[in-house]
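Researcher: We plan to redesign the surface later, but first we want a full-length starting point. C-alpha cells attached.
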C-alpha cells in the first residue's frame, strides 16, 4: 500500500533543467531505497537513478551520470531528481520507484504512475 506520486514534469528546452519530485505515502517505514526509471515511446523502461534512503548510497545510468542528481528529504518522505543539461533523448515518462529491504533497486517493489518530461529543440 505504499503510494508514490511524481510531480514536476513538463516541457523544457534542450540544455535546460528540471526537478522532479516524488512523494511517498502509506507504510513508508518499509522503504529502503527510492529511485527513478523512465520510458520513451517505443522503448523499454530503463533505470535512471536510485538512492538508499539512509546512508546516501547512489547509482546512476551511464547516460545521465554527471547531469542528473538523485536526492531525498526524509522528513518530507520525498525523493527528487534534479536534471541538468537536458537532451532530446531524455524525453520520456519518468517513474518514481521504491524498494523494501532485500529488493534490488533495479527491480523495485513500488511504482508511481509517471510524469511526462518533454525536451524540445
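Model: Full-length starting sequence:
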Amino acid at each position: 500500500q505504499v503510494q508514490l506520486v511524481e510531480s514536476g514534469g513538463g516541457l523544457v528546452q534542450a540544455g535546460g533543467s528540471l526537478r522532479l519530485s516524488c512523494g511517498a505515502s502509506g507504510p513508508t517505514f518499509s522503504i529502503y531505497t527510492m529511485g527513478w526509471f523512465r520510458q520513451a515511446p517505443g522503448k523499454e523502461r530503463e533505470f535512471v537513478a536510485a538512492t538508499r534512503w539512509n546512508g546516501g548510497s547512489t547509482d546512476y545510468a551511464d547516460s545521465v551520470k554527471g547531469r542528473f542528481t538523485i536526492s531525498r528529504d526524509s522528513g518530507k518522505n520525498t525523493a527528487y531528481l534534479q536534471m541538468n543539461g537536458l537532451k532530446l533523448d531524455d524525453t520520456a515518462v519518468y517513474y518514481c520507484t521504491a524498494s523494501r529491504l532485500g529488493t534490488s533497486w533495479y527491480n523495485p517493489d513500488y511504482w508511481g504512475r509517471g510524469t511526462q518530461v518533454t525536451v524540445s529543440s
